[in-house]
Amino acid sequence: MAERALEALIDALRRLPGVGVKSAQRMAWHLLQHDRAGALRLAAALSDAVQRMRHCTRCHTFTEAEVCATCLDPRRDARLLAVVETPADQAALERSGGYSGMYFVLMGRISPLDGIGVAEVGIERLLERAADGLVEEVILATSFGAEGEVTAQALAQALRARGLKVTRLARGVPAGSELEYVDLSTIAYALVDRR
Amino acid sequence: MAERALEALIDALRRLPGVGVKSAQRMAWHLLQHDRAGALRLAAALSDAVQRMRHCTRCHTFTEAEVCATCLDPRRDARLLAVVETPADQAALERSGGYSGMYFVLMGRISPLDGIGVAEVGIERLLERAADGLVEEVILATSFGAEGEVTAQALAQALRARGLKVTRLARGVPAGSELEYVDLSTIAYALVDRR
User: Fold this and answer.
1) Which of A124, A191, B36, B148 could serve as B142's disulfide partner, Cβ 3.0–4.6 Å?
2) Beta bridge partners of B82
3) Shortest CA gap B70–chain A (Å)
């Protein structure tokens, strides 16, 4: 076989999430045919990221430093700790402009089918972080699908057992929505959680 | 910013075809969180492929050698030259078991919207290859969408001008199909091309 290097590249690309054989082939051919500079840039970026990126020792998000910039920011309210699943969820909360507390990033959520239980999602690390003597309220901001809800429930139980105040982001009708077009389970939740 | 290496990785992944910001983020997080070995393997495979893979000087497909194994195979019929768009199309023809001639791989097709004209698709290289004195018939096996048809027409014109016999894969009803479920333009073509 005089295409061993190509096969190896296609195999390696297939390990990316959401990439099947056809996509991996298309990516490999595209890089070799039209963007060899991009391929080398990607190779360097991969090595560099693996070498530099680690987890913030306080909030567990990705960072190159020991502690990330958000955790070091003295203007943030150390009494509030929001638990999110991913850096993207953290960014969404930041963009909302409604939160100025600290974060804890799970980097996942409980997913029994994938073998990710309460231990794998880093509950010990969270309990330790929340017990710093400053945190007064842990806001569970995991997603609102089945796995996110299970994660929130498991974390709430463990956090409350340590005597911590635990809240959950409100479920309800999205801002700006016409009720007519909101799905029924959201309306049902909004009725239950009415204020 | 203590996430420069992460941002650089997301940017580099976005250059892959079909990958947007969200997918690139998901890929980067997945690699850093769950598959750092896979990330390093991908980095090595990229460098290796860029360094080793070049184009066969006869058929233009990807190969690590000067001339690919198919072009060197003495059992293949040198009088037939099939023109395909990609190595995947070549593989499909091979799997059909109905072809034992040579190949020319365009590595693309004419696509005016992407700035790929008849020159970019390598027509000079094809004309030179087809003029080796052995080729008696060029079989155009480009795809049957608009761009593939335009490509086939442009190549046919240039090849016929050099006095070469040019044929095109037959359009028609797929083997095993119920006519009832075949789309109408396919039936129309099958009527026109009836034997």
Assistant:
1) B148
2) B103, B139
3) 10
Residues belonging to chain B? 195
User: Helix (H, G, I), strand (E, B), or coil: what is residue B136?
Assistant: coil
Optimal mutation site among B46, B71, B111, interface A, most CBs of chain A within 10 A: B46
Tokens representing B77? 């019929």
> pLDDT by residue for chain B (195 residues), tens digit each?
567 899 999 999 999 999 999 999 999 999 998 899 999 999 999 999 999 999 999 999 999 999 999 999 999 999 999 999 998 889 888 888 889 999 999 998 999 888 889 888 889 999 999 999 999 999 999 998 899 999 999 999 999 999 999 999 888 888 888 888 888 888 888 788 876
Q: Please indicate, yes or no, whether the overall pTM of this predicted structure exceeds 0.80.
A: no
Inter-chain touch B41–A16, beta carbons under 8 Å = no
Strands (E), chain A: 54-55, 62-63, 77-84, 101-105, 137-140, 165-168
